[in-house]
Amino acid sequence: MSIAGLSALAFVSSACDVGGISPIFPEPVSPNGRAIYDTYIGISILGVIVFVGVEAALLWVAIRYRRTRQPAGYLPPQVHGHTGLEITWTVIPLVIVLAIAAYSFVELQQNFQPISNQQMTVIISGHQFGWNYDYGNGVVVHQEQNIDGKVEPFVVPTHTLVKLQFRAVDVIHSWWVPAISGKTDAVPGYDNFSWLKIDRVGQWRGECAELCGTGHAAMQIIVQAMDQSDFDAWMARQKASASPSASPSP
């Protein structure tokens, strides 16, 4: 690969992390994110095994039966159809694909269904081009478009099962924070669901994963997890700023 090619690759890779998410799958911090990560790794390992097996077979045939090892004018056996072989190379890939589909379906069903044992619920509403997080107590966090990713964080307490309810007011958006959960569509007139439970303090980034208009690239997400005491203090400040001060009596 030329120096110019390497430079271009480095530039593109670094650009992926400016105002966006890393191209490398991050370490999961929520159980549903862990399940998706494990599914991704399992499918990837299987894919690598199939790829290596197919490429090894191709190389073996190319080397074993290369022309330079055969006498002049050699014509290999002409085989037209092999029922057993054709059934084998049809059934094995079919079984692999069906197994991946069934396993993935079961995992996704567990991660994207409404839960009933939540400790708090947040309604996430997507719009062109930002997100609103309604805690149901008068506090709403607004994440408006910012290509640098410097947006108001969506704050949750650690060790708390949070139900996420997704809506949209204009077009379809898709809420995606790879370290926390899979992509969840926010659809006008229809609610989708997911959840999270983060057991460590920190911040994680995401973005809208559905092309939704000219400001799509600036539709960034930051999720911040705090200890319960810090979250309570943050929530108290949000409530105080959301409630206008009482006017003095005349």
Protein described:
Helix 2 packs antiparallel against helix 3. With 250 residues, the chain is of the alpha+beta class. The protein has 2 domains: 31-70 and 83-111, no CATH class; 120-239, Cupredoxins -  blue copper proteins (Immunoglobulin-like). The strands form 2 sheets. It has a 5-stranded mixed β-sheet. Strands 4-10-9-6-7 form a 5-stranded mixed β-sheet. It has helices at 3-15, 31-64, 83-111, 228-242; strands at 120-127, 130-134, 140-144, 154-157, 162-168, 173-176, 184-186, 192-196, 202-208, 220-226. The longest helix has 34 residues, at 31-64. It is elongated. It has 4 helices and 10 strands; from the N terminus they run H-H-H-E-E-E-E-E-E-E-E-E-E-H.
Give a quick rundown of the structure:
With about 250 residues, this protein is α+β, with helices and mostly antiparallel strands. It has helices spanning about 5-15, 30-65, 85-110, 230-240; strands at about 120-125, 130-135, 140-145, 155, 160-170, 175, 185, 190-195, 200-210, 220-225.
Question: Which features does this protein show?
Answer:
250 residues; alpha+beta; Immunoglobulin-like; 2 domains; five-stranded mixed β-sheet; 10 strands
Itemize the secondary structure elements and their pairings.
Blueprint lengths: L2 H13 L15 H34 L18 H29 L8 E8 L2 E5 L5 E5 L9 E4 L4 E7 L4 E4 L7 E3 L5 E5 L5 E7 L11 E7 L1 H15 L8
Parallel strand pairs: 1-5, 4-10
Antiparallel strand pairs: 1-2, 2-3, 5-8, 6-7, 6-9, 9-10
Architecture per CATH nomenclature, i.e. the level-2 architecture of the largest domain = Sandwich
| H/E element sequence | HHHEEEEEEEEEEH
Give me the number of helical elements.
4
What portion of residues is helical? 25-40%
Strand order of the largest sheet: 3-2-1-5-8
The main β sheet shows up as:
5 strands, mixed
If you consult CATH, what is the topology of the largest domain? Immunoglobulin-like
In CATH terms, the superfamily of the largest domain is Cupredoxins -  blue copper proteins
CATH class of the largest domain: Mainly Beta
- Mean pLDDT comes to 85
Output the radius of gyration.
26 Å
Percentage of β-strand residues: 15-25%
Question: What general outline do the C-alpha atoms trace?
Answer: elongated
Label the structural class.
alpha+beta
Distance N to C terminus = 79 Å
